[in-house]
Amino acid sequence: MANLEKIVNKNKILSSALGGDYIVKSDIVIGRQPVSDEEVNRVKKLIDKTEKIATHTPLLASNFEKAYPILHASISCKWTIRSDRSQNTRTEALNLIRNRKGNLPHIVAVTAEPLPTRLAALALGTGDLDCVYHFALPELIKSIDTIENEDQSDMLNMMIEGGRLRDISDLPFDLSI
Question: Using CA atoms, how far apart are residues 177 and 131, in angstroms rounded to an integer?
Answer without folding.
Answer: 14
